[in-house]
Amino acid sequence: MSKSKFESISKIINLTRNFNKSMRHKFHHSIQDSGFTLPQLSVISMLEKHGEQKVSELSLKMGLSDSTVSGILDRLEQKDIIKRERTKDDRRVVKISLTGK
After folding, report:
1. Which of 11, 13, 22, 33 would suit a FRET pair with 4, their CA atoms being 20 to 30 Å apart?
2. What is the architecture, at CATH level 2, of domain 36-101?
3. Within the chain, which residues score under 70 in pLDDT?
């Protein structure tokens, strides 16, 4: 590989690293400013994209246990961001949806 080609590739790699570092920094600051954790924002995003979901569906999509997701949902429910409703067909099934607030 020629020296100039190597230098060009090296510059691209450095620019990419700097860009990624800057974006991570901005992303973390925007998360902190939102008052939500990243897992809470993930749940909100999934509910916005897919509509109401069962806890097990959210757990599967997030790769977390049902109990971990339930804890995340507890905190979102306390903030009045989500609501839990039992289905009429099967009272054991709880659907999670956004409150719209």
Report:
1. 22
2. Orthogonal Bundle (1.10)
3. 1
